[in-house]
Amino acid sequence: MSEHRSPAQPDPFPTAVATFRAVQPPLKKPVQFVKGVGPRRAQQLARLGIATVEDLLYHIPFRYQDRRQIKKIRDLAIGEEGATVGQLVRMGRRFMTRSRRWVLEGVVRDETGFLFLLWYHQHRYFEQRYRPGQRVLLYGKVELGLKGGKWMIHPDIEVVEEEEETARILPVYNKTTEMTVATMRRLVHGAVTDYVALVPNGVPAEISARLGLMDLKDALRYLHMPPLDADVAALNSAASPAHKTVVFDELFYLQLGMALRRRHLVKEEGVSLVPGPLVKRLYEVLPFRLTNAQERVLEDIFRDMAAPHPMNRLVQGDVGSGKTIVAFCAALAALDSGYQVAFMAPTELLAEQHFRTLGPLADQLMVSVALLTGEVKSRRKQELYTAIAEGKVEIVVGTHALIQEGVRFRRLGLAIVDEQHRFGVMQRAALKKLGVNPDMLLMTATPIPRTLALTLYGDLDVSVIDELPPGRKPVVTRVFHEGERQKAYRLVKEQLDRGRQAYVVYPLVEESEKSELKAATSMARELSRTFFAQYSVGLIHGRMKGEEKDEVMRRFKNGEYQLLVSTTVIEVGIDVPNATVILIEHAERFGLAQLHQLRGRVGRGAAESFCFLLAQYTPADEAHRRLRVMVETHDGFKIAEADLAFRGPGEFLGTRQSGLPDFRVANIVRDSRILEIARAEAEAWLARDPELTSPASRRLRTILEDRWAGRLELARVG
Ligand code: ADP
Ligand code: MG
Q1: Handedness of CA 36, 38, 44, 49 (dihedral sign)
Q2: Predicted model pTM
Q3: Does the pLDDT of residue 197 top 50, yes or no?
């Protein structure tokens, strides 16, 4: 990643890295150095993302079993989890006539009675590994058999050696299918025994004393080998002091890196762009007045742009809050100062739509705007490249095509990224590279809960458009069970009969785009033959060529199609005010944030609009509870909070995309309080020692660079 550093930005920690590598190599060694890990195990571990010794040390148990009380079989309580030790006296398969399937049964005996074991799956595995005569330790829920007797179904089972200490709190790890929990435990313990002492204590002593944190290596040891007097409930809810220590350590360095980036950024030199006559003219020709929120956000933007440092501002605004026009105002300010603008959108559909929206306005203002997507033919493309390089094109709206070979700007002053969460960090960095420290304006319609914003955008300035243009009504949202399909269809019809238009959206049904295509295609065909036979039905999907998509969208916009069957390509940004109803198939497969985006496709005009969620669920399902959130609120921020809580941060945005160091232990939903504290502590530390030059900061720098592994530079554009 370091090749993306521009010469203007010196590596903040060159010497620190060298020191770190010299001091800490053992933890960075391949995991194969750990006792018991051969090439085969190393491969298996790699699939869990464990590559180094350190990775294995940070492979924290996800659960703990309380085996401090090994009970006699007689004392095992029905309906409760328990542990016992006994001798395996029988092991064999049996055909169950009633359910017509094979099962594996075992019998264990101690001096007080018998315990029966049952496996429905993996017979071979257990049969080969556990044989009559062995002393085994069992852990599981105890159930009463149909004909009496105590049973454990799919118990945790382990052979016990004579000398082994059996009474303890046992960590349970994530593992691959090829290894047993016991194997994973053995490997991790090997790493702990030989390497944990080398883990440097990262958090300054003064802070950890004040917050009551443990020594980092003690905390790791505690998590892998809890002492007998540990609080198992606290361990299982990740609330133990050891958890807090490891989580704080992780989040402290995250926030320290973020804060440092912010500070470095402020010092960089950039262009100073000031709004002038073009911006003024735009206000005159706009068919509406900007909302207060739009104006406030523009003030933030103009202030940043005027400053002689690069802007790094993220504009969050719910769907339909009017981000495009705000971006256009910013663009004109750049033009007013004699600079060019790049405006990047994630899909061709969206880039084209922006181009069409901005085109007429640009014509009125006599500003030249061009569209650059993958669809542009190569001859035309060459002409465009030349025009951009000569500065004849002032605003280039485009897709990824913008950052491909051959695009050179004469003087890029502002780079705008719409729906920025759809781009990877590298792509945003590449866009920035098209100029010399241009101002960056990032826009997103995915409202980010505060904890996540602190994490993802801790190094950005954030403005929120928290107001919709006047006259919008909330979209009436209803959840329909699969069995109520006809009813939902009738309601869609009702809208069509009033001259309105409708979307029917299909999710990515399976992994492959092909089947997604098939689902939407056959759906379109079926609907146009059956229920919606007397209406005109269009189809749009991601596999179509840009021109085809464009044509379909144009027809839908013109009202030639009344119903548009679509895959999620319509998700972002599409604006057709006469569409008043959207029916979403398999709504349970979408994230809430995505549903919210889709719902934002309607309710863009003055008429009452509807969103119907067709889903497969049982009343007890989490899916149903999730979908109820959509019915109950229209606030994108609340929906995002709920989504984050339901799905967890990884799925919510995908940490891989975000360019953040992956979290090893922290969970920003669960640990949001610790996150806030870590942020405050990091800020306070930097306030006293902004360059991390004091002796107490020395180690901080080395660890910091290690944790961020070169990503401090990149994180600033994302
Ligand atoms: P989003 O924030 O979702 O990208 P858009 O920029 O596409 O929203 O704007 C949605 C619609 O609202 C567009 O049709 C746009 O012309 C309109 N719009 C934007 N700002 C205003 C405003 N201040 N008053 C009225 N309509 C507006
Ligand atoms: Mg938009």
Answers
A1: positive
A2: 0.66
A3: yes
